[in-house]
Write a structure and sequence with these properties.
With about 350 residues, the protein is α/β, with parallel strands linked by helices. About 45% of the residues lie in helices and about 25% in strands. α3 packs antiparallel against α10. The radius of gyration is 32 Å and the shape is elongated.
């Protein structure tokens, strides 16, 4: 396991290309001035030991040294001690509807992005709580197992889309059924399931499964996104024009948010229905629910001791600087004496 203590220092690496451009410009400027002073043959007689290769090599050594110094400032660390750390929190799983109806744009930017905003803001406000994510459409799929790694949860959440599922539809019952076996800590007294959907369920077993989850100690809450008036489902764009989904009669399909079904599922699961069309209010309501919940203590493994490695990078940086200092920008005499290219014969 490794981490970067000060990643912002990596921005300094962009100084090196700027210096390289300046160095190349300086070489061309020198060559231009030299040609204006004398012809190449005369310059060769006046300064026979000058070496462009040595100048470039010295510059590259300085660039390498600067790169090592940037890494030293960022200070990469590696974990050396894995310890069990006790935390207090609750377990919550988000079941996110990624069916195509969630692409409807009756809520800006669309239902799916609104749902992801609510989940992301909730994750950002979590403390020691553990989180898992399930995505579903016609079937349910595990996106992220229950974990305390909130950064990974946010990363996986961004990838949630209808492309992750192979079957179409909105089977909330599949999501609840998977969630029942998703929680991996039987000792956790507070387990929450948040079903985020527009409520267009094509199966009718969700209420029974919500009751089953309640018996297993899992409270089911529902978060509705979308407008009850409905909106068409965009499928693709052709020459800048949006093409909407149509039924067999070639009529544009209108998808509507169904709050009543979501309320029935929440009531059966011992939770409440949350209106997700207002992100701020929805996140606040979720936070209040979690704050009131009793926190359970659990153990998690993490690297608690990290070893600094900036010394190595400083050492390599100093090494290249010393090499640069002792390297002259003139031709190496012993190489010149080898007469590799028969320069003496040409001169005679």
């Amino acid at each position: 396991m490794y981490e970067i203590e000060e990643p912002d220092y990596f921005l300094l690496i962009f100084i090196i290309p700027a210096i390289a451009v300046l160095f190349v410009w300086l070489l061309f400027w020198k060559k231009k001035k030299q040609r204006a002073f004398a012809n190449p043959l005369l310059l060769e007689k006046l300064s026979p030991d000058r070496s462009i290769f040595k100048s470039v090599l010295k510059f590259l050594m300085i660039c390498v040294s600067m790169t090592f110094l940037v890494f030293a400032l960022a200070n990469p660390k590696t974990g050396t001690v894995l310890k069990s750390v006790k935390r207090q929190g609750v377990d919550l799983v988000f079941a996110l509807d990624v069916s195509k109806s969630m692409l409807a744009e009756d809520i800006a930017p669309n239902r799916l992005e609104k749902a992801k905003q609510i989940i992301a803001k909730t994750i950002q406000n979590l403390g020691g709580d553990r989180i898992g994510i399930i995505v579903y459409a016609g079937n349910s799929y595990p996106l992220l197992p229950i974990t305390t790694d909130h950064a990974s949860a946010l990363m996986f959440l961004q990838n949630a889309s209808p492309n992750l599922v192979s079957s179409h539809g909105t089977a909330i019952d599949q999501a609840i059924d998977r969630a029942i076996t998703y929680f991996d800590n039987d000792e956790q007294t507070n387990r929450f399931l948040f079903v985020v959907s527009d409520g267009e369920d094509h199966e009718k077993k969700a209420i029974d499964l919500a009751k089953k989850a309640k018996k297993e100690g899992i409270k089911t809450y529902t978060i509705g996104v979308g407008d009850v008036e409905g909106a068409p489902i965009p499928e693709q764009k052709s020459r800048g024009k949006v093409i909407y989904k149509r039924d067999r009669k070639r009529q544009v399909v209108i998808t509507k948010m169904n709050p009543e079904e979501l309320k029935d599922i929440a009531d059966a699961g011992g939770g409440v229905f949350i209106d997700g069309n207002d992100t701020k209010k929805a996140v606040k309501q979720i936070q209040e629910l979690l704050l009131k919940a009793e926190k359970s203590e659990f153990q998690t493994k993490k690297f608690s001791d990290y070893k600094d490695h900036f010394q190595w990078f400083i050492g390599f940086a100093l090494l290249f600087l010393v090499l640069d200092i002792f390297m002259h920008d003139k031709k190496t005499k012993w190489i010149a004496h080898l007469n590799l290219f028969n320069q003496k014969g040409k001169d005679s």
